[in-house]
Structures are given as structure tokens and as C-alpha cells.
Amino acid sequence: MSSSVTQLLGAWREGDEAALSELTPLVYQELRRLAGSYMRGERKGHTLQATAVVNEAYMRMVDMEVEWQNRAHFFAIAARLMRRILVDHAKAHRRQKRGGKDTTLSLEEALVMGDEREPDLIHLDEALSKLSKVDERKSQVVELHFFGGLTYDEIAEAMDISAATVHRDLRMAKAWLNNELQS
After folding, report:
1. What range defines the domain where residue 129 resides?
2. Considering its fold, how many domains does the chain have in total?
3. Model-level pTM?
4. Tens of pLDDT along 143-152?
5. Interatomic CA distance for residues 57 and 41, integer angstroms
6. Is the Cβ–Cβ distance between 34 and 149 less than 8 Å?
7. Measured in whole angstroms, how far is the alpha carbon of residue 162 from the centre of its chain?
8. Per-residue pLDDT tens for 42-91?
9. Which of 46, 59, 97, 143 is 20 to 30 Å from 111 by CA-CA measure?
10. 63 contacts: CB under 8 Å, gap ≥ 6
């Protein structure tokens, strides 16, 4: 699947609209699986919908002007978009809970928003931003693993580093983030 996704991304980049039609079912199911695995760790009854996150991320990606390199590059960008979508919605929800101005939400936004998870997600995002100032690579490794669901090998390919480096970076980043989130 990896080579066919890479080939279809290349064809799409070259302007082949049929490649996008062929690519969509391949990557959409994988994005849905990644978002679903992220959502499985949530509390019961959580209203955050993986499908809504994937739909939003995919729609943004289709409109992007990106020189797609390969499958790993595609999923790395998807992970970053899903992180932004989740954090943006968490912040919007927190503003509403604190009596902020009423805002009109689209159906997609309403499906994505949850109740109790947001503060943790916002703190994680803030901690990741701090980590990126200290060590950008470790921050990216966490983002790809946590938000993108990429394996060590996929992260290594996307970032052009070894899987052993991914493992070390992830261990160090988790310890740093744990310390940051505890304080």
C-alpha cells in the first residue's frame, strides 16, 4: 500500500485528478483508523468523533498546495492538522464553558467537541509548544506518534532519522512532557 499511496500522491501532484479519486479511499481509511485509535483511549460517552476530525483534516489537505513526497510525509502533515483541529476545538469549547461569546458552530464542529478532555489536550499542546522551543525534533516525534498514530518506522521515514532515534526521542520527550504537565 505504501508504494501505491506514494505513486498516487506523485500523480496527484502532477495534476492527475483521477489519482485523487483513487487515493481518497486508501488514505481515508488509514486516517480514520489513526483517529479511531487515538479516540479509543477516551472516557466512555465522549462526544469527540474521529470521523469529523478526519473529514476536516482531509478537506484541508485536499486544498493544500504541498509537494507530497511520500506516504509518510502525507500522514505527518495529517497528524499536524489533526492536532490543530483538536486543540482549536478544545479552546473554543473552553471559551464557551467560561461564558465567552456565543459562537455559531457548524455541524462538523459540534460533532467534534467534547466535554472533559479539552483542558488536558490544551495543556499537552502548550507543553508540546514549549518542547519544540527546546527540541523541535522531539516535539515532532511526539506529534506524529500521539496525534498521527504513526509507528516508529513511519516516523523515522517521515523525518529521515532511524527508528532507534525515534524510540530515544519519544522516551525523552515523554519524560520531559510528564514533568512539564505535572508542574
Report:
1. 2-182
2. 1
3. 0.66
4. 888 877 788 9
5. 20
6. yes
7. 21
8. 545 445 677 888 888 888 888 888 888 888 888 888 888 888 887 787 77
9. 143
10. none
